[in-house]
Structure formats: C-alpha cells, structure tokens
Description:
Strands 1, 2, 3, 4, 5, 6, 7 and 8 form an 8-stranded mixed β-sheet that branches. The longest helix has 27 residues, at 357-383. The protein starts with 9 loop residues before the first helix and ends in a 10-residue tail after the last helix. It is built from 18 helices and 8 strands. It is of the alpha/beta class. A hairpin with an 8-residue loop joins strand 6 and strand 7. It has 3 domains: 10-219, Glycerol-3-phosphate (1)-acyltransferase, CATH 3.40.1130.10; 231-299, no CATH class; 313-425, no CATH class.
Amino acid sequence: xxxxxxxxxxxxxFTKFFVDLSLKTAYRKYQVEGRxxxxxxxxxIWASNHTNALMDPLVLLAATDRQxxxxxxxxxFKNKTAxxxxxxxxxxxxxxxxxxxxxxxxxTESIAxxxxxxxxxxxxxxxxxxxxxxKHSLLKLSKGIFHITFSVCENSSDDKPVYIxxxxxxxxxxxxxxxxxxxxxxxxxxxxxxxxxxxxxxVPVQMVELKNMLTxxxxxxxxxxxxxxxxxxxxxxxxxxxxxxxxxxxSDAGLKGLMRLQDADKRAIAEIQDxxxxxxxxxxxxxxxxxELRLWRIQNGISVHSIARGVSIPAVLGKFLLAxxxxxxxxxxxxxxxxxxxxxxxxxxxxxxxAFYNTARFGVRFAMSVIACILWAVLYFCLMPxxxxxxxxxxxxxxxxxxxxxxxxxxxxxxxxxxxxxxRKAPDHSFL
Length: 432
C-alpha cells in the first residue's frame, strides 16, 4: 500500500534537520514571531505571502519542528524524477487555469488529498497568491485555498475546527544571500465558526468575505504597499526613513530585532499613504524627489544605508582598515569556498527570474557542503601536520558565509566613500 504523503519517516526528519540548519545559516538573522498563534485543536492551513520562490517554503519549513505538506504549481511535477523528489519533500501539486482546462479537473483529486492531510492533523502550506512576486504587496488571492478549506469543514467533526493561519514573510533583500528574514504568524481565522455564523449566506459569498479577511490579515503582517503606482518611490522612502537612526528610535521599543525595523517601515509607508489621501500635491512632489534620488543613487552605486545613516571620513577610514584586516581571511575563504561559489556562478547565469537566485545559492551550498568538507579534510590532512590541518578545516567551515558577509561590508564601505565624494551633487534630499 502506497504511503500517504503526510506520513513521516526517519530519512525525512533526518534530512529536515540539516536543511533547517543550512537555511538558518543562509541568513544573517532569521526571526520567527507569533508561534503562540498557531492553533493546536484542529486542522490548520498555513497561508503565506509568496515573494522569494523556493526560499519561502524552506523558511516556513524551519519555522517549527512539526511536519508540514506544501502545495506547489503542477508544472514542476512534469518530470517523473523531479516528481518523486518533490513527493519525498512532501510537496504536492495544485493545478491552475494556465495549466489547461483538463489539468484543472485534476484539482478534485488534489483537494481530496489535501483534505485527507488536514484531517490527519498535518498542516498544509498554501501560497494563495498562486505565484511569487518579489514585492512588499499582495496579488489577488486565488480561490483554491478556500475550496480546500470548505472541503475540510464538510468532512470534519464538530469538535475539530478548521483554521486558516495567516503568515507574513519579510526579507531584508529578495536577491542578496545572507540577508535577513522575518516570519510572522498572525491571528488565525476560525473558518468553522465563520461558516456557522454566516450560514444564511451562499458559499461563494462566504468565500469572498474570507478572502477579504485573509488579505487584510496578511497585509498586516508585512510592510504592505497597497498599489503599484508609486511602489518604487514608496519603498525607497520607507527604507531611507527606517534606516535613519533617529527615525528608527521612534519605533516601538517593546519590539525586538526585525519586528522593530518592520514597524519603522510600516510607519513610513503609512505616512506616504496618509499624505496621498489628504495632500495629494505634496505627496506627488515628495515622491518625485524620492524617485529622483533613487535613480541617482543606483546610477552612482550608492546604497540606502549610506544616505540614511550619514557617513564621515573617520567612519569610512575605520571601515577601510577593517576591510584590510579581513582581506587575508577573505582570500583564504575565496580559495576554500570555490568548491561552492564557482558552480553557483555557472548556475546563476542560466536563471532568468531573479527571485530564484537565492534558491539556487542555497541549493548549491546545501548539495556541495558535504563534498566540500570531505575534500577539505583529505587535502588539509594529507598536506599539513594535523594541528594546522585541523585549524584550516575549521576556518573553512564558515567560508561561504564570510565571503558574502565580507562582500556586503565592502560594498557598503565603497558606497559610503562614493557618498562622501558625491553627496553635494545629489538631488534634493532635504525630506530626510
């Protein structure tokens, strides 16, 4: 008898341990908030925003120790070998209209399987936007998640409520490795209670109301920009303000780490939205200045950090000395880590969607880590006395992380230097 996809195995949990460990070291800071909001008394569908390709499932996989099953678009299951691996990873297909009318009919089978998973008490992770987009916003939610939810409600006993658990994922940067990520579990939607309270309404009406409710809760868990018309300028303003130490200090001191930074982002976005509603002329002028500064800084290779935090000659000199001090280890890491970063570069050249960059970096790093450790051990212990070999091996372990972190530090130092030289020529930034 074929095992159910939701059934655990030693190999799966053994692999998950190392995947989670690798995922958490792929970010400078990985922070999870609101685990206490996850229901424990019924069936739970995890609903998250979708911004960073396959990193989103990995980020959620590591958020709790519990086993989960993920739903993903059906086209990635076309290859039989890939389909077997995806099933091992507890990922099942869901079909979309773009997959063809006949394919959509197969969703009946997928919904039945999803219902079985949830009735067994295993969380099912769905991305209701149905596709990824690296933006601080939300696409229109699809109906698939609600069809599954209602199917589970129909088959659940009265004492086993069905929930939708909204989750917000917030990345410090969508495209750079070793950035930050914040995972927030919000207040769950008790769908069973909702259906009873709205029994007089038709199912389509209930679905629309649930979709609006879920959209609002997801938006509240991220630094949400409600429209695309002034998206770039609005997010630029938020980054500039939130990175300003004085502005950041006015955030809720009771929040910790990335939560406090997100609070500053959300306040800055709210300022823009409020100005657009109450003083559209001033808002247009402000956004024009912000956009002009954004385009100028990109053209000149200057980061938001340099502009928002301000720089001085002593600070730049200090960073330069630190960069010089770290250069020998950087050179060592570049040689030792070439086993990982060289194949990564080749793979990245073939990727057209930038949102998959970090997925590729993570995949190569995870796949090559064991091989790299074996090669390091053989090479060092064959060529050096064991004391030096052990030291070289230990220094090699964080080589990939150090390469990315040093690269980030060096880029910011260079940005600070350019800002020192060119800030007098910068567009009007008095709004800061």
